[in-house]
Amino acid sequence: MSVPEFSHAFREQLQDLFRWRRDVRHFNRDPVPEPVLDDLLRTACLAPSVGLSEPWRFVRVDDPGRRAAVREDFARCNARALADHMGADALNYARLKLAGLDDAPHHLAVLSHPDPTQGRGLGRGTMPQTTTWSTVMAIHTFWLAATAVGVGVGWVSIIDPERIKTVLDVDPALELVAYLCVGYPAQPASTPELERRGWERRAPERREWIQR
Amino acid sequence: MSVPEFSHAFREQLQDLFRWRRDVRHFNRDPVPEPVLDDLLRTACLAPSVGLSEPWRFVRVDDPGRRAAVREDFARCNARALADHMGADALNYARLKLAGLDDAPHHLAVLSHPDPTQGRGLGRGTMPQTTTWSTVMAIHTFWLAATAVGVGVGWVSIIDPERIKTVLDVDPALELVAYLCVGYPAQPASTPELERRGWERRAPERREWIQR
């Protein structure tokens, strides 16, 4: 197989993909066909991983009892962590995620093996976090591929990772990296919801090099 | 602006992009034009970030003295961390990175602010690592966009992050996430070099869901 040439048109659309990849909070409830989800998982596994260790573990959470327990944990963490020191404003933004948890037809937990035998340790001696970071890139790959087929992803991080691992009854040695809501978005948008609602804006100075 | 429709052809090419995004170890020495590098940085900043915090800091390392000090740190970490317990085999694979450090026309360090005021703390109360993970996704975005314009990226992780921060004279509060070699690849390939050379193979079971 020869090296693909990526055309100007492709690169323009790739920019659109990056621009339209959103953290989705509003889903319609139609399920995503299983073959589409399976394709997204296979694509996610093309992500880079340190030493080719593939430390990611993708969990489908379908059980209503487990989902309810996750929702409850989110509500507890959100109330406790935010109400005190961030104000009602933050509480409202974070609550948008609750709608996502309620409406998204699919819930995925993504975990990471902190010390996989696969990869034989290469490349992570001095920076062991690169293992977890590999899983983060698999999640990002899933997210981009999902966007390209019109599927939205919302990353829920206001949870107690240890509690969620118990709820999901997974190997306690694994690290919980993300809890994802997945489904067709109700409101596609090219601007982050946090920006549209005035929470925060992108900073132009981030787009400049620091020189050394 | 209306939601883009991503065509079947685009999605096929996106698969190619994921498949051909490699951890590049062999570069030719031709510099990448500055406007191309600037575009890649701007694209990287379209990555998701928790609370829209944009914690990434991209550093261009051009000074020959600093580059030599990084190379020296790599050689020391590689010798110490790997020779003992991983054998000559690992040492050889890791040494491929030395060629990358020597030949790549551009060196980028990517750092992350662990507690940015931007984003106002939203979403990282219980999982503060999501800040670093945002920077990891910016690196991955840079990597994919680079691949689309024929530019290769090699991630060097066999370094002492604290030492590198000193070499680069950056704010000690920042976290070093990656040291990247950037340039045109000498040998494009669709298979990871570690797989071609027999170090490790992808595991088919990673591409299956765990059900809960």
UniProtKB/TrEMBL annotation, chains A, B:
This is 5,6-dimethylbenzimidazole synthase. It is an enzyme of class 1 (oxidoreductase). Residues 190-212 are annotated as: Disordered. Its EC number is 1.13.11.79. Residues 19-184 form the Nitroreductase domain. It comes from the Bacteria. InterPro entries: BluB (IPR012825), Nitroreductase (IPR029479), Nitroreductase-like (IPR000415), Nitroreductase/BluB (IPR050627). It comes from Komagataeibacter oboediens. Keywords: Oxidoreductase. GO terms for molecular function: 5,6-dimethylbenzimidazole synthase activity. Residues 193-212 have a biased composition (Basic and acidic residues). The gene is bluB.
